[in-house]
User: Fold these one by one.
Assistant:
Number 1:
Amino acid sequence: MFIASMPAPPPVVKWECKDCTAQEKFVLREVQMRTDITDKYALATILGNIKQESRFHSNICEGGSRVPYHRCYSGGYGIIQWTTENRYAGLATFARKYKCDPSYLNCQVRYMISEKQFQTALSKFTQNGRSVRYYMKAAYSWLGWGVEGSRVNYTWEFANKLTGTKG
């Protein structure tokens, strides 16, 4: 009896950033591990938006104060500047449920990925081969920023630093 062998699955491209900070590398790794996002420009867009929001400082209150979660009394907080009452409180609820500190990057990244707004945008971030502009629209639906600022510039900076490895 002849059994046809199955073709090997295509190699998975995993993006790395050797010239990134430890915080940037952590976010990149977690997003790739916890989602199906594989497009370089989608990942760069996520990183570029986080850089615009917080410079990857998890303990940052809107305006620049570096304080623990419970000492940020107005405006946004954290890596994506959770601002609305529901989103800000959602971070604390998530932290209690999963026994993590809402001031820390690891807790915030897990919350960010699980949050409804990110999950809604995920269907766009997982479409490969799209333009940065396309992914920026997804980022806007996720974050709802008031000022675009340097998001696109940061996105291109990350896109130029990301290198793929087959795994």
Note: The first strand starts at residue 13 and ends at 16.
Number 2:
Amino acid sequence: MIKTQLLAFAGVLSLVSPALAAGGDPAAGKTVFQQCAACHAIGPGATNRVGPVLNGLIGRAAGTAPGYRYSAAMKNSGLTWDEATFTSYIQNPRGMVPGTKMSFPGLKNPTDAANVLAYIESFNADGSSK
């Protein structure tokens, strides 16, 4: 009986959106992103602020958003933003890139980190929604 319940649960999970299956909820991430919005923008018409625009973040080399003046530490980090790199960074920015200009202490809750990543990934590089 337990095996049947687990199989049924697995079937339900397969119907969940890809972002949720990857561990994040974009809607919840939009709420978490409010902590980021003082410095970063995302979506249609987003521009650099205190921090760089986050449209097209995943797949981009760190320190390369057009028109943003990065710290030498970020420009020379050698990082490319993917899910694992972003998750590690957002949990402890200064620990991962000592000397970064980002003063944010990090999202210590892994669920918050996954959700904000899912929110960021819900936008295309041009700021349109996926």
Note: The chain has seven helices and no strands.
Number 3:
Amino acid sequence: MRFGFTAFLLVLSACAPHRDLPVMGQVPTFEMTSQDGKPFHSESLAGHVWVADFIFTHCPGPCLRMSSHMRKVQTATASTPEIRMLSFTVDPDRDTPPVLSAFASRYQANPARWVFLTGPQATLQMLSRETFKLGDVDGSMNHSTRFVLVDKQGRVRGIYGTQDEDPVRRVTADALQLQKDNS
């Protein structure tokens, strides 16, 4: 009897409507440089759901965990290749395109879906502090360990802490939900 009730609850929860994700802001257009040394324009993200984080390649701890989580997001969304991932460096002086390329290879990043970006400190600051509300990118290497979810219209729809319970599952589920949405 207990198994039947548990199965019923699982089916019922699968039919429950998804929670509405708030609109937390709009991402402005930006231009940076990708790990392959080519210009990256934010316009290329139009119509795509994407997940972003801020890392640096010589980080001794949290960035490795974040990149590992991002790799899991890439794997979990493999059947939905329209979803993109962006990792912005907080250390543009050291994280040159060749360094970012080697780091991307370490995490088996699919360059068609997961892009590592470097660029002007002012652009990184604008995105981290003003757009995503994650704090300063000021050269100190202190940075947020959160992921940001952006919808097809370039609107910020979620922020997920790496210390939260199962952040990979949550950001993946919400990204897939937004990908299905026509709005």
Note: Confidence is low (pLDDT under 50) at residues 1-17.
